[in-house]
Amino acid sequence: MIEPLISGPSGHRLSRRSLLKSASLVGAAALSTPLLGACGASDGVTSAGSTNTSAGGKTQVKIASWMQFEPGRKEAWAAVLDAFNAQSRTAEAVLVGWPFAQYANQVLTQVQAGGLDADLITAPPDLAARLFSLNQFLPATQAIDAAGVHPDEKLHSFVIKEGQFYGVSTVTVGFGLLYNEKVLEEAGLQPPTTPEEWVAQGQQLTVQPDRFGVLQANNMAEAGNFWFNLQNTVNAYDGLWAQGRTPLVTSDPVIKSLELFKTLYDSSMPKGLNDAQSMALMGDGRAAMGVLVSATVNVLKSGSPDVYPLMRSVAPPWAGKKATNRVHPISLYSGSNKQEAATEFLTWLLKPENMADLTMRSLDAIPPYPELEQVPAFQAYLKDLPWLPGYQDVTPVTPMDLMGDFITASDEFGNIVLTSFQQSLSGGVPVAESMGQAQTQLEALASRLT
């Protein structure tokens, strides 16, 4: 795990030696697209500058995020912030930040440089674990208690210290096999339940360039999306990317999982599409299925209303039904000088009816705490999602389970894996050989973990 800033409003300090060790990891990420993933990001930057008050004299609370760039989620967050801002007499909440492809690197760079211009931070699990280790979060105890909720300890284990929560999920997305029911029915197929069936159906349904049987991210230009999807793939054979500080990319489960991906890549996948192009392909009914995060349906509902009703899901097509759940917490930023106003917003957001509103508007389904399940509107909502059952029928694992101590260097780890794996996908190098190269580099990375 990486260490705190040199100094800042929170008073955290570290040595020059520790900073240089941390900066070496950030620098490695800066050499390529930041390797943290989410779906639907678009280009652009949003920033609120250094304003501390709104036109109405309220304290302006800045929430660092990428949600404002995602179809579906940006509308959900806008509605929720409008509701808070209309109710609060003292605070006004706004989103600031960057699209997802830039987000992690920008946040880490600013944190390392001396401070982020924000009061709360939303983060994907890999980045949240890294920021937590940097002491960039404050306990959310006051807000949690005031909201009267009890966050799930297993979901949030990576942002808990000494019994206190340092973040609460605003969105938890899981992987499942999302498929177009019409495409499979017309081919006389039921969703696959084994890797072998998945390969066979993918080949049967592929009629290039008109239709592809399997949609999975594989574009190095959007390596973040590629990595977090590939990260989940090792669940096919109960694999782990690492255990503690020991990389396991040459283990049989990882090799078999990557060989499965390569087989699908060679026979059934569209190659080199960016995320928007991939979603357009599925939105046109030209992609049959993929092991994708549940957030994909939000993009489809927003951009492809004719195809959205055809989407269904089952658990991933392998024994054990393991799938990665990705928790994206919101946390109080330790460098903020507006903790009272930030806590006011966080308390309001965590109240079950407000979190339920955000969850439903975002087409999410995994509640961060049991109190959400007592909200009548949320109960009705869960019963009216025909695409949901497969995402509920999984054995959940977390990125932390898969990555060991490398969770705080997940982007660097992924960059090494993807660069080596590309030799297998495009250059004909056996997977075992390319992962042998990656293993050596990852062992060197292990020595730089703090």
UniProtKB/TrEMBL annotation:
<protein>
    <submittedName>
        <fullName>Extracellular solute-binding protein</fullName>
    </submittedName>
</protein>
<dbReference type="InterPro" id="IPR050490">
    <property type="entry name" value="Bact_solute-bd_prot1"/>
</dbReference>
<dbReference type="InterPro" id="IPR006311">
    <property type="entry name" value="TAT_signal"/>
</dbReference>
<dbReference type="InterPro" id="IPR006059">
    <property type="entry name" value="SBP"/>
</dbReference>
<dbReference type="Pfam" id="PF13416">
    <property type="entry name" value="SBP_bac_8"/>
</dbReference>
